Amino acid sequence: MGKVDKYIINSSIFALFTEDFVFHFIIDLKLFYLIVIINSLLLIYKKSFVINKNHLLIVLFFIVHGVIMSIFVSNVVLSLFAQITGICISSFFFYNLLKTYGKECLFEAYLKFAFVIALLAIPMFYLRINVFVGGDRLNGILNEPAHYAAIMLPAVFVLLKRKSYFKFGLIVTTILLSKSSMGYLGLLLIVFIPMIKAKYLLKYLGVFLVISLSSIYYLSSNWDKPTNREDSNVFVRRIKETTESFEEGLKGKFKNGVNLSTYALLSNSFISIKSIKDYPLGTGLGSYPNQYEKYYPLMTPPKYLLTLDQSKINKFDANSLFLRFFVDLGVFSLFFIVYFVSRSIKLFKTDNSDIQQATFFYLIVKLIREGHYFPPEFYFFLLIFVKNFDKDITHSRELVNS
């Protein structure tokens, strides 16, 4: 492998972890875009840069849909252009990177970087270097603990499958230190998703039904009993409080005691539901902030968040890619969601697609929690999930192995 190829591979994979590397020169310049642009030019020079027809058709759909919605709903052309530009730069580059070098080679480089960054993250955490607000949550060189946890999940899955327990244990430890609820969810899914096979379902279905029905009976029989006394059932009280907060939140009404994370999720869910009801065909890519402002006056945020100027938290990303996607694309987003589910089922039916299976855990966390359309790592994992690039590699396979 030539020096140029080694540079392209290593710099491109390092770029996945560079969301927090920003240089200010007149405007904020991200290292990620500098690497992507330089490496795209190198791939063009090597005559290894093409545009896939299906890839282009999806982008054209986003453009046409966004322009039509701008005409009939609200003018979001500038925001649409910004989103399309970011999506194209990132997704076209990673498509060609994967097409040229293959997922196996690039994922191996990702595993090496993930291990080194996890190794650095622990002393960074205890020495309070680049720590998250408060300093009690690990985020390494990433911007937030949740982002750190999400990007490490594919490495955790593959290292576990390979029985590389030292590296697996180190990365899992850093995710636990990140104290990210999405990281914890990802770890649980890594344990339980591979177990969801017909023989296990039949084996444990009876146990699951007994536990579920017993829990439902217990809750229903104690639901109407008073829970405002100190000696009342704590479990039932917590469930009722959570249910009430959820129901009120979806109506746009929030009690002063609601925490910031819960408010962020429920307030953006409220905005999304309102928008989808009024605009089932969507409002165009990049339109979510406009929709947020349109429906925000219908909410009653808690006073303490108004005082802290945090009542519009996640206004730009909906707190969830799932919510933002539904608002922007409306019913059309269902096609992408159905494809994601069917593709996931297909991948986990086979035993020889560890790398592609690993990307599922990043993507599911991404759908639930992170609402940006083009963070540095997103299209690397998404494209591996969608396509097995190693199947049609010819000259690049010879190049990598030389």
Automatic annotation (TrEMBL):
<protein>
    <submittedName>
        <fullName>O-antigen ligase family protein</fullName>
    </submittedName>
</protein>
<feature type="transmembrane region" description="Helical">
    <location>
        <begin position="56"/>
        <end position="74"/>
    </location>
</feature>
<keyword id="KW-0472">Membrane</keyword>
<keyword id="KW-0812">Transmembrane</keyword>
<feature type="transmembrane region" description="Helical">
    <location>
        <begin position="80"/>
        <end position="98"/>
    </location>
</feature>
<feature type="transmembrane region" description="Helical">
    <location>
        <begin position="201"/>
        <end position="219"/>
    </location>
</feature>
<keyword id="KW-1133">Transmembrane helix</keyword>
<dbReference type="GO" id="GO:0016874">
    <property type="term" value="F:ligase activity"/>
</dbReference>
<feature type="transmembrane region" description="Helical">
    <location>
        <begin position="168"/>
        <end position="195"/>
    </location>
</feature>
<dbReference type="InterPro" id="IPR051533">
    <property type="entry name" value="WaaL-like"/>
</dbReference>
<feature type="transmembrane region" description="Helical">
    <location>
        <begin position="21"/>
        <end position="44"/>
    </location>
</feature>
<feature type="transmembrane region" description="Helical">
    <location>
        <begin position="321"/>
        <end position="341"/>
    </location>
</feature>
<keyword id="KW-0436">Ligase</keyword>
<feature type="transmembrane region" description="Helical">
    <location>
        <begin position="110"/>
        <end position="133"/>
    </location>
</feature>
